[in-house]
Design brief:
The structure is a homodimer of 416-residue chains. With 416 residues, the first copy, chain A, is α/β, with parallel strands linked by helices. The first copy, chain A, is 45% helix and 19% strand. The first copy, chain A, has 13 helices and 16 strands. The structure holds a DNA duplex (30 and 30 nucleotides).
Chain lengths: 416, 416
DNA sequence: GATTTTTTTCTCGACAGTCGAGAAATTTAG
DNA sequence: CTAAATTTCTCGACTGTCGAGAAAAAAATC
């Protein structure tokens, strides 16, 4: 449904635009902002003075003039405009990071995760405690925290911050919104971890290729299998989604998966599945909850030495991934695939299977093999994705709700 | 990438908004437009007088006043503002329809399709002749044709009107843009047939449910298998896609498909596949080019009488469809599925397989079986989808490029 | 038949936003 | 000290939307 447009909307959108180029390129002068946004100098003046009055951006300290002419005055976000807490939930720990409005990391710690099975309630309590702890350590007032950005593996509700299914808690849903609302007025967002990886890679790619960038998929290999897809939207930035790839059907009536279904991709390509297959355990045995990486390393070593059974296990995993990717490509379009996660260390063993699995589909035979690249530093990508996403959400929120109100309160502060 | 906004953009978007409510609700009075668009009366005046000067809309004939007060003046699109040619390519014929700007059908005919294999070039020539023929019959000047909207089964390039793969011509690409550009200045768009069905069903659904509508998939069963997905976009209307569903991998190293790959869904669920399976022909035999529906009816009759082999053929088809749909749902979200096409007459035989195939996946086990409905009148839906899509494209084009220019030329005409 | 009521359309002034041009500011080069 | 260069700021013009009220036009009422 289309909706009406007004001149205020124009100002809002252009304000967000100014903030976003500031975000992307760091501190910028008036003229540079004008160049990047294609807005006239007069408009930049109007917008920046408004944002400055609202205490969202500030003029930077005078820096040594680097040429003739009137020296530039750089504009940058005010670090103390607001704060962001990033919560990264992984299988064995939860990492809390406090970040300021300029994207600078202020504080960070990790907490071990309790592995007790009936732990959803206790887990939520732990997250609440962790959030209060990082706030307490920083001496920042709670109202200044504008956003809490959470990520986890698993399936996430697309509109609300509800974890619908996760490898650890299964179908025991976790609603972060209602869990945190009592003590936090900050907005809460929740994203799938691999989605954030895809978003970060997409942003990097767009930096390089510019308008040529179309789409990209990120595949994360580990105890579980995740997929994120980022596509260039029609007009409004990027469109990202995190399908339930690990539990997409690979083969009807296939191996038993952790989720209780038979034949999921993960039941062939997850770490536990490779282990199960390498030890020739029947495919309908209930899989191990957790597999030490060292264990898998041993299997990989044997496979590299030429032992048939472990090599076959990796090959089967590759085939499941390749088939799944080919199905994903059939449902979307040809796009490069970036593989991340701890599983990349076995890529030499997986590769042939992946390529064969991809090659078995019409789309790949017709359009050719998609570009596959291995990307390290999964953790950095996740955090980068958090920042990209969270800070632009904050920018939008500030402009949408804040500028006029904040401007008024700023005037009061000045006169008071 | 965000882009700058300006006041002209506001006017453009609001003009499109006015045209779209006119499109949706038929002739409307000033006040009604204001109600629907939430724009003020003054703005409606400004926009409508502009559109009227540009000869895009007109005041309707005075109708008997139906109450007290100043009588309403209805505004409607000018039928002669421009024309649209709809070309529906099906396996045995090509249908040409001439439609005016108000969406009214003016002329229509079908032409048999030559089934010669080396026919891509000849086929394009036939389409060009057909287009000229329908233009000639109508006595409309060629410049008045603003858009040629083509649909076909198969895989379509998402940005340009290029048929990438089709059941009949295979990988022999057809670029309608370059084929028609010499003699037509009209814009050319090409869509997958099932995508248009999905778009039409989505529009209907949105009429009923309003903002509650989220997404919907249309599955078309026939000689080939098509899928269209429509999702409510973030802000700008609907987002539709037509994946290569029929040739998504169903089973690695499975039955041979028309496309030359093994294991496509169509190689189990297409009409030829059901035939092959019912006659217990080996799955690697090259499939029949064309299967008379009567032949399939016979098999269905036997299956309904309880014969095992033909019943199994339908069941296998259902399983392939169900597995494929479950994979699609894993990659998107839970959504209702509408089944159309000639294959719906065998739905009683397919149903059990489809449901079982769906049930084998994690997503369906977790979120439950999606709603499945059978929808008749596929042809009507295709045409409706064409109109929805094409006319809104025309509206946008007119406003974007036309209003000021057309206004100028109108003034010239008046003074001349 | 004149007047009032009701409903719709049109018009006017206020306000918000962007833009181009040029003025003002401020530094380096000579 | 002056001229040149460069950046920032300001002003008036233009476009757009809005609310209020005037104008139009028919039915209802006296």
């Amino acid at each position: 449904m289309l909706t009406k447009s007004s001149t205020e909307l124009v100002r809002q959108r252009n304000s967000v635009l100014v903030l976003s180029v500031l975000r992307r390129h760091g501190a910028l002068a008036h003229t540079e902002i004008s160049d990047f946004t294609r807005l006239s100098s007069a408009t930049i003046s109007a917008i920046t003075t408004e944002l400055e009055k609202a205490q969202i951006i500030e003029k930077s300290e005078q820096q040594p003039a680097s040429g003739r002419g009137r020296p530039r005055v750089l504009l940058r976000q005010r670090r103390d405009c607001g704060y962001l807490i990033v919560v990264i939930i992984s299988s064995d720990a939860v990492q809390y990071s406090l970040v300021d409005y300029a994207g600078k990391l202020i504080d960070r710690f990790s907490e071990e995760r309790s592995h007790d099975p009936a732990g959803a309630v206790r887990f939520v309590a732990a997250v609440r405690a962790g959030l209060l702890r990082i706030l307490d350590r920083s001496k920042i007032s709670q109202e200044k925290v504008l956003l809490i950005s959470i990520s986890s593996k698993g399936l996430v509700n697309s509109t609300e911050p509800v974890l619908v299914w996760s490898p650890i808690f299964g179908s025991e849903q976790i609603d972060f919104e209602s869990a945190l609302r009592p003590e936090w007025q900050a907005k809460v967002i929740l994203d799938n971890e691999t989605l954030l990886i895809a978003a970060a890679l997409g942003a990097r790619e767009e930096m390089v290729k510019g308008a040529d960038f179309r789409s990209l998929a990120a595949l994360s290999l580990g105890h579980s299998v995740g997929l994120g897809i980022v596509r260039r939207g029609n007009q409004t930035g990027q469109e990202i989604s995190a399908p339930n790839f690990g539990h997409m059907l690979h083969m009807a009536n296939g191996g038993l998966c952790r989720c209780g279904t038979r034949g999921c991709i993960e039941a062939y390509a997850g770490f536990y599945a490779i282990l199960r297959s390498a030890f020739e355990v029947p495919l309908d045995t209930i899989p191990a909850k957790f597999v030490p990486v060292a264990e898998l390393d041993k299997i990989a070593a044997k496979a590299r030495q030429g032992h048939r059974v472990p090599a076959f296990a990796f090959r089967q995993a590759g085939l499941a991934l390749g088939n799944g990717l080919s199905r994903m490509l059939s449902l979307t379009e040809r796009m490069p695939i970036a593989i991340t996660g701890p599983g990349t260390r076995y890529y030499d063993l997986l590769r042939q299977g992946i390529e064969e699995g991809l090659g078995q589909s019409h789309i790949v035979r017709m359009e050719g093999m998609p570009e596959i690249r291995v990307v390290a530093d999964e953790q950095i990508l996740v955090f980068e994705g958090h920042l990209n996403r969270a800070l632009s959400v904050i920018d939008e929120d500030i402009v949408l709700s804040g500028v006029h109100g904040a401007q008024a309160s700023a005037t009061i502060q000045e006169s008071g």
